[in-house]
Amino acid sequence: MTGRRGGRPLVPAYLSTGGVARPSRPHLERLSVLTGAGTPAPADLPAAQLALLDALDKGSLTVVEAAALLRLPVSAVRVLAAELIDRDLVLARAPIPPAGRFAPDLLKRVADGLRALKHN
Amino acid sequence: MIQIPDLATGGLAVGMLSALALGGGLLRAQRQQAKQRAEIAALRRQLDGALQAFTAEVEHLAARRVPAAARQLTHPHVAVPGPLHPQTARAPLGLALEHVLAGLHTELAAQRTRIDAAAQAGMRGATREIQAGLYRLQDALRGLQQKYDDPELTQTLFQLDHENEQSLRRAQVAAVVCGAWVGLAREESHLVDAVTGGQARLAGYHRVRVHNHLAAGTALVSHAVEPVAIIVAELLDNALRHSAPDTDVVVNLEHVHHGACVTVDDAGLGMTQDERARAQRLVAGSEPILLTELGDPPRMGLAAIGQLTRQFDLSVDVSSPSPYGGVRAVLRVDSRLLSRIDPDERPPAASAPRSTRTASRDEASLDSRVAASDGSRGEASSPSHGYGAEHDDDASGAASGHHAPRDAGGLPQRRRRAKVAGAASDVPAPRPAVRRPEQAAAALGALQAGTAAARSAADEPTGDASTAVPETAGAAPQRIEPAANDTDQTDHEGGTAR
Fold first, then answer.
1. Which of A42, A56, B430, B480 has the most neighbouring CB atoms within 10 Å?
2. Strands, E, within chain A: which ranges?
């Protein structure tokens, strides 16, 4: 995505999940927010799960962001995240629904109204 | 005076004498002739015998020795029988026949090499096309994996990708055995990536355990990446094939003097002395490879390793038994083929096992920080997406919840948000154990209470305001600042990141 890595990746995506593509929990979405639970990682964690846990070490990431960071497809990150959630190593929060976000139109109208009031 | 009768008597006597002499001579001549005839007959018999022996010898040459000599070319254990009569071997005939065999051997060997070269050329052409097609297929599959994230579809895509990798491996190995180039130019890559990439090309990759004891950032120069991946894949394939399905194959990556080693151990039956010698001969790559020597179907793995070790100055050893009972294969990569990649700037693949070395890792990140600060390398100054890079960047980006978007090719790059503990304190701040909605509410409540307290006591410095928060907000002191920072940052982010 950044163009820094040319050529094809050496390690295919299926290796990260051991060939599994069906996440153990279906509700993870692209914009679900993942947060590390802060418990130390167990020693037997597969490399890719450890990498995801590491990426969440100091903050939160959405599933797509984690995918971009680890250079994996979103589907693979969903599997990894679901496994980590199952082991209580990661917390997931549903994405903020569109209704809860700011409506730019409304805000603009409010700002316009305020400006109009100020000028009057 | 001589009387007539006397004369007659004398003449008779002389005649008789001469007749006797003549008769004796005749008799002797006859006897000699008979002797000579017998001699001639004996000689003829001898000649017949010699001729028969010669014919038999040549027939023996045609029927037994020539086929055996021809077969010996492909099966070295076949013994060429000697001449019928041992004494012929020392005779000129024996030497001449040996020359016939030697000439035949030379000509057959040359012919065989020619035919094999033709077969190899044909196969090289075919596999090159197949390989290119499979790479295109791989691109398409990876594109689909990125584009769609429906689990069922992804499952199929993963399976197809894996099948494709295996086909690719076979095509590539066949091409390499036939003397072709590995078929793919890669950029400088981490050694552990090459090993993990090789692992992914096998059906039984689940059984492979990779232990990485290399210093972080140990990499291969670009032209050695694909050969190492191929060699590791073939060594692993051998190990997986010759060990029980419920056993693991253990791979260790270690530094050695003047390079790095990839050790593959399996817990199978091991090899017999003969097999071991043959395998060692093949992987050494000292002899030219003939397709006809690889069996039917040709077992190409070891031959491909031999070709690559010869071309790329790698060395493979399969001569020692493994402590696990099976075979230990050791690939040694000379330090001339090794390089270093900054692991923070370009971390290894997520699936590649982490290095077990921690001390050198810190040292490596220190190096990278120096490289990034002097800014001599354009790439080094761009913010990395590496998951290993966080410890460095936190110090500089502590002022805000976000890392400052530095320029990378003119585009601001979004960094993930880091929780900022008290920036000045060296003591690592205790992390909030879990961030639940109730706690977030409590933190916000604490913020409000803190702000109110600060306003009420206007002369107090604002930094102390956080101490006045109610006891209910357990994690409040650490959480206030990031929360306050977040309120003005969230506007830009659309509130999705937290």
1. A56
2. 33-36, 59-62, 90-93
